[in-house]
Amino acid sequence: MDIIEIKTIKLNTLIGVYDWEKTVPQTLIVDIAYALPPLSEGSDQLAETIDYDAIILHIQQFAATHHFQLIETLANRLVQSLFEQFATPWIKLSINKPYANLQAKAIVFTIERQRKL
Asked: Is the pLDDT of residue 11 over 90?
């Protein structure tokens, strides 16, 4: 399986269960890995792969237009949306919420899914 990894996509979005979190944007850090369809032998064409710029833009737009209480819900819905838009059979996505708890540097939720046939 061929995999692309994109690290440290910064998002500003409304996320959280507390009242202040519903009005003050917070920074989330997203890491994503996704499987690619195999390239034709000798191919060097963007049309035969999944454009990582398009993936990043999709993640940014999704976070800007959808607001959730839980990073778990954001991750699940985002992966569903990525499967709807891109021909990848597998996605692993992590959402890092820095300083979500004073006792920890970050809370990170990771989801790994395969496309349902």
From this structure: yes
